[in-house]
Amino acid sequence: MRALGVFATVLSLTAGCGSCEPADSRVPFGADTGTPAEAPAPDPEPPDPAFEPRTGETFPAGTRRVAIEGAPIELTDADIRAVLAVDLEGDGDRDALVVTADGGTTTLRHLRRDGPRFGEAHELARMEAPGEA
């Protein structure tokens, strides 16, 4: 009698599985139902601005004062070895990137252009010659 009860329970459970829906509406698990919807193409990234080579001016050892585009640059603590005038801030004024040398130390400095003159030099990078540090 117990076996009959188990059989009836299993029969009722399996009979209810899918019996309420038409056979064609069931989807087998993991079956491919067609091609997936295509994702929209991402917006193309704007192209990088082309590299624009620039040429600065170089100066001999011992140079402490130069004029760049009519504005003087004068340093008392190091020699001015190279200058590149470029608008770093996008404000329309061409600032100065200055490479200086003092003994075994080479320094890259930024001088912001302020109208007819350059402002104070700000150190961006410093490199010591081997054995000098």
Describe, in plain words, how this protein is organized in 3D.
By secondary structure, the chain is mainly beta. Helices cover 11% and strands 36% of the residues. The strands form 2 sheets. Strands 1-4-5-6-7 form a 5-stranded antiparallel sheet, with no helix packed on it. The model is unreliable at 1-14 (pLDDT under 50).
Q: Give the low-pLDDT segments.
A: 1-14
Total count of helical runs of at least 4 residues: 1
For the biggest β-sheet, the strand order reads 1-4-5-6-7
The fraction of residues in strands falls at 35-45%
**Series of H and E elements:** HEEEEEEE
Shape designation = elongated
- Give the N-terminus to C-terminus distance in angstroms: 97 Å
| Mean pLDDT over all positions | 79
Keyphrases for this structure?
five-stranded antiparallel beta sheet, single chain, 11% helix, mainly beta, two-stranded antiparallel sheet, 133 residues, disordered N terminus, 1 helix
In short:
It is built from one helix and seven strands. With 133 residues, it is mainly beta.
How are the SSEs ordered, and which strands pair?
Elements (H helix, E strand, L loop, with lengths): L1 H15 L40 E2 L6 E4 L2 E4 L4 E8 L8 E8 L2 E10 L2 E12 L5
